[in-house]
Automatic annotation (TrEMBL), chains A, B:
NCBIfam families: PRK05282.1
UniProt-recorded name of the protein: Peptidase E
Keywords carried by this UniProt record: Hydrolase, Protease, Serine protease
One protein family per Pfam: Peptidase_S51
Listed GO MF terms: serine-type peptidase activity
Gene coding for it: pepE
Entry superkingdom: Bacteria
Length: 247, 247
């Protein structure tokens, strides 16, 4: 069976309700499935319950039951039977460290790749679908055992991609500069996914959908803009090499 | 002998030349020393030479000779005899990974702590003076062996600290939110050091100097603003515990 991924830049877009901007895409992605496990680990421990309650509320109109993965005794075992996993946003380092400690990385990778488990992410959860968390925007507030994440796709995504402010006097790096730094050290394509958009993967097909264009960065190539509706399947066939410094 | 640190938020402030905003502080910090080693490792390898040339140019008016640490055969040995080390800005992850590979962390920590080597940093170089890189703004483009850095002070600094934009529709975290996430997981004070300012440590004394106020964050305490000229020596006496989640 082919794999199915829904990778949102963000869960909530300015002036809209939680997941409201992606309502139709959600229905299409779920394809009749009525049960979701939600991983709230990008939030702080004390917020797991309230974060899960927000997701439960957001999925009520879809007649979908949401179970917080933190409420089951053995998350890895639960994921062996799950139909859909939704990994929510927050801090990517905290998220990855917890996923590693729970030992769920391999079971998710295997079942998603074999088309048995559908994977949906937003923000940090989308970042986790990449080979590595290396293109996160988050602060490294804790140290994961390694930066390797689910690796459900072969390229990197930068969620919440932002264009440089035109009138800034700030001397810190722009988002584009940060991604170019990543390309200095890694020969791996990066999709700058602006808020309001998402990637939808179905087997060998990859599409950009949503409200905003995406900016795609490759080494030795000028960044390119792609409109919603673009077929990005070619991204899945590109080579990707980490830790290969630009000469 | 007491230790001497000069920790700049940034090397260049809007509309001013390289290190121009901190000219007097530099003279005071160097205190007659005429020879500096410069660590350019936060930049990409191909830029080491040009970055070092910029620093050499900036120090000419001070009659100071700057040697790129990357130009000497054995950097750790060179640092055993050095008077002043300047660690420049760029990407903190790349910087820390390289410092670890060069095996210079311990010799710098030991000689700075004993007052034998003066330490000057800007941006990522200032971040390295902390116990950990955990409060960097940089993208984790490469994976260092650990997040532990020089540990010349007991608290954390966030360089290039930025106030939240007032008119933004962006849903990503503000800098303050990121630092509060750090405090969820670590009971360690954080100095939000705005561009144009620096910390000057002389033994048990710590002062905020420069052009802008700093914002200091502590767990379970409202963030506090401090003006340039503030005595922050009390920060050096606070306990700091990493990896202690907020209950």
């Amino acid at each position: 069976m082919e794999d199915n991924l829904l990778l949102l830049s963000n869960s909530q877009t300015h002036n809209m309700g939680f997941l409201e901007h992606a309502r139709e895409a959600l229905v299409e992605f779920l394809d009749g499935r009525r049960s979701i496990y939600f991983a709230p680990y990008a939030a702080k421990v004390s917020a797991y319950d309230s974060y899960t309650a927000t997701i439960q509320e957001a999925f009520k109109p879809f007649n979908v039951t949401v179970t917080g993965l933190h409420t089951v005794d053995r998350p890895a075992a639960a994921l062996r039977d799950a139909e859909v996993l939704f990994v929510g946003g927050g801090n990517s380092f905290r998220l990855l460290k917890t996923l590693q400690q729970l030992d769920v990385i391999n079971v998710v990778r295997e079942r998603v790749t074999h088309g048995e488990l559908r994977y949906m992410g937003s923000s940090a959860g989308t970042n986790m679908s990449c080979p590595s968390l290396r293109t996160t925007n988050d602060m490294p507030i804790v140290q994961p055992a390694s930066f390797a994440s689910f690796g459900l796709i072969s390229f990197q995504i930068n969620p919440h991609y932002q264009d440089p402010p035109t009138d800034s006097t700030h001397m810190g790096e722009t988002r584009e500069q940060r991604i170019l730094e990543f390309l200095d050290e890694n020969d791996v394509p990066v999709v700058g996914l602006r808020e309001g958009s998402w990637l939808r993967k179905r087997g060998a097909s990859l599409a950009l959908e949503g409200l905003t264009a995406a900016r795609i960065f490759r080494r030795n190539t000028a960044p390119q803009e792609y409109k919603p509706g673009s077929d990005l399947s070619w991204l899945l066939t590109l080579p990707a090499t980490f830790d290969q410094s630009q000469p």
